[in-house]
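subagent[fold] <- orchestrator: predict structure for attached chain, return tokens only, no commentary.
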Amino acid sequence: MEIRIPRWLLLVPIALVLLAAGGFLLSRRILPFGSSPDQAARSVAAQAVSTFFTADYADPDGWLKRFEPFSLPETVELLKLIYQPRIWPSLEKDRIVSSGQVVDLRKVGEKADPTTRKPMQAWRYTVRVEPPWPGYPPEITGYVVVVRQDDGWKFAGFASEEEIQREERP
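subagent[fold] -> orchestrator:
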């Protein structure tokens, strides 16, 4: 006894596989694998946090320079005038050479910048700092803000929990 399978029945699984593969490739062309509308903003937020907590007490100028490619110019100036004078004395005193690794990062808000009307996002982060900075725990949680510019997302600064909550209220 011989079982005969019609040729067209053999073509159905092949056609389904080709259709599925074509749909997958088309969807990747529209939205590339591993990306989403927030992926670029998330990447800049993570880079800002990691860069901030990766510090070498002997190289304060190098620390600032690492922010320049992905930060607003006024943010780099703020880091230089406000953050660096507060942080660096204790890093120098204890000869801290640290690295910051982001262990959690979640978007908590999105709105238009009141001045430029460009999109901005707030992200809640947790970073592990090795070795811990003097007076701080090994894991630090806070908020980072990024803003969309013509040339991509840029680090705009850090925010307090109060600032984030104030922005969420109508």
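orchestrator: received. Logging for downstream: The two ends are 78 Å apart (CA to CA). The first strand starts at residue 99 and ends at 112.
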